[in-house]
Amino acid sequence: MQRIKLVFPTQEYKDQVLEYRNEFEINGDSMDGTAGLANKKDFDEWLSALVDNSKEETVREGLVQATTYLAIRISDGRLVGMINIRHKLNQYLLNFGGNIGYSIRKSERRQGYAKEMLGLALEKCKEIGIEKALVTCNKTNIGSAKTILSNGGVLENEVPEDGEITQRYWISVK
């Protein structure tokens, strides 16, 4: 049974997105898969960047075309996570970032939302023509590794990055 849906951010979700960012800031968590939400002054600037980066002809310099989705719980409309799908890989993404980055707010973790969200994102990958998706995580992030493995991830290798180890998994998109 599907518990969440992926939706493109709109003004309708402004308050929830800001609340989401605040929860990450309070907990000192990394905001992976949020398309730079932590680095934007305000919601409108972030949303404008998402719209630009979702189209090949307007993607911002140094970035690749990407689509960011909010994971909204169907039962109550609550934002539980975010996921970013990069349509292509540049050298950095190939080595460290992957096609897909995601996050789940701390208050909603360990409930299976990441597994479901990644599964839905893989369906989106198929729609845009990605046949094999690279998904990475820090070696110490056991929960993320389990999420990737549960969606068919196969570990290719581990690479050092800034004193950490990044695990690189490939998932065949069916």
Task: Jot down its keywords.
4-stranded antiparallel β-sheet; single chain; 28% strand; Aminopeptidase; alpha+beta; 174 residues
Structural write-up:
The mean pLDDT is 95. By secondary structure, the chain is an alpha+beta fold. It has a 4-stranded antiparallel beta sheet, with helices on both faces. Strands 5-7-6 form a 3-stranded antiparallel beta sheet, sandwiched between helices. It is globular and about 40 Å long. The chain has helices at residues 14-27, 43-53, 91-97, 113-128, 142-150; strands at 4-7, 66-73, 79-86, 100-104, 132-138, 154-161, 164-172. It has a single domain (4-172), classed as Aminopeptidase, CATH 3.40.630.
- Count structural domains: 1
Radius of gyration: 15 Å
Output the helix-strand order: EHHEEHEHEHEE
Unreliable runs, pLDDT <50, ≥5 residues? none
Report helical residue fraction.
25-40%
Biggest sheet overview? 4 strands, antiparallel
For the residues shown, what is the average pLDDT? 95
Total beta strand runs = 7
Our count of helices gives 5
Report the CATH superfamily.
Gcn5-related N-acetyltransferase (GNAT)
The best one-word shape is globular
Helix/strand structural class: alpha+beta
Strand content: 25-35%
Distance between the termini: 20 Å
Using the coordinates shown, work out and report the CATH topology. Aminopeptidase
CATH architecture: 3-Layer(aba) Sandwich
As laid out across the biggest beta sheet, the strand order is: 1-2-3-4
Protein name: Acetyltransferase
Secondary-structure blueprint:
Layout (H helix, E strand, L loop, with lengths): L3 E4 L6 H14 L15 H11 L12 E8 L5 E8 L4 H7 L2 E5 L8 H16 L3 E7 L3 H9 L3 E8 L2 E9 L2
Antiparallel strand pairs: 1-2, 2-3, 3-4, 5-7, 6-7
